Amino acid sequence: MRGHGPPVSEAELHGLVDGDMDSGRREAVEAYLAASPGDAARVETWRRQNATIRAAFAPVETGPVPWSLPLAPGAEGAAATRQAAGGQAEASGSHLWRGRWFARLIGLSFATGALLAASAAYLAGRANAPEAAPPSSDGPTPAGLNDTYVTRALSALWAFVPPPAVVRHSPKSDGPGQDTAAPILPTLSVEGLSLAGVRAMPGGQGQMLCLIYARPDATNIALCVEKAGDPGDSVPRVSGSFPSSMIAWRQKGANYALTGALPEPELRALADAARAEVAAFDGW
Amino acid sequence: MALRDELNLCAPRLCRYARALVTGHPGPSEIADDLVHAVLLRTWEAGTTLRLDGRDLHLHLYTLLTEWHRERLAAGRMGGKAHMENENFHAGGPRAAGNLPFPASPRDKFAAALLDLALQEREALLLIVLEGFSYAQAARILKISRTVLVMRLARARAALSEIPAPKTPARPAKARPSYLRVVK
Question: SS3 sequence, B150-174?
Fold first, then answer.
């Protein structure tokens, strides 16, 4: 293809249509097309093709995306990933996967409602409580570790869908200027447990943080921590019953609650591990 | 901008590309939509380690989707019982194999014309024309040279000739945004 100056290549004709060419060559290419009706017609055809394709798919970009993206990379997410990658091509798997997400979303809606109700009850309880509650470091029942706290801790687990991001939970990450009065978050480095995420919820003394750990059997465990309103430590106390049992205690100025669908001995063992880590914390 | 926000922004365009690639038409497609969903999930899962943003994230999403679509086709051919859903499981398209009657409606003709393209040509055409990537970006997504990309593009355009314009489906009354779930 020859026009003015260097030959015009086929690639340059496509580049002209797609807006991907050196600006210095545009004039030369257009001059060539003016002298070559055949190629000019081809270029016009390509332009019409482009316009047709773009117009055909314009509704997808502006329309609703047909899913809400839960972005919860649990077993379902991994399964979906594998499925979409080509391992299993049956549509039935896709239906099942969508169904599970739908069911989960419904469940989450109920859990959110429960969480709000529990929070409201807790706030009401706080509002009616006497301003100066006596310290209760001498008793086996930690102050503040009431049923509402249990409910809130449980609701953290119910409503939890683990995000993929690994959350730094070591107090070391706070740096030298950390708040030394902040509750200690134990890593709970027990074999088989992996930190799946963190939930922050309103608590009695500010925020309550719940570390969510995933077990190999796909059940979750929540370790919730909030600043204690009262000083002193307390012994762990079990409340509720399997599978909604919980162990709560107060230690180093924070209320702790461990909950999960575990038999009491296992829950106690985990609580002991958490307490040991909190006790061993040297503040860095 | 947070990763989830960027993914939300990319989702409709990724969905458009997936549908065009898989079915050749803009209507809902389980396979295409599941592919998009899986790509977003995987990217979200790997987000903290990949540390992608902006254009790199965009390229990554399209690269992943293109590769997974190819793998899916390959798995479908090997398994022999893939769900078709108007999908082109053959390099030259199902019509090239003489298996399907030629469709009548403009929309079907449009989809058929796209699906009749070889997969590699369709990928190149859609990335450039539909998604507006530069030649360099599209070549990077497809892991080919710019020269090969232009060759595929040229073959696709020659094969399409006068592509019949489809009747676009009516737009929904109200577009709902897509959300990524946030745990906080």
Answer: HHHHHHHHHHHCCCCCCCCCCCCCC
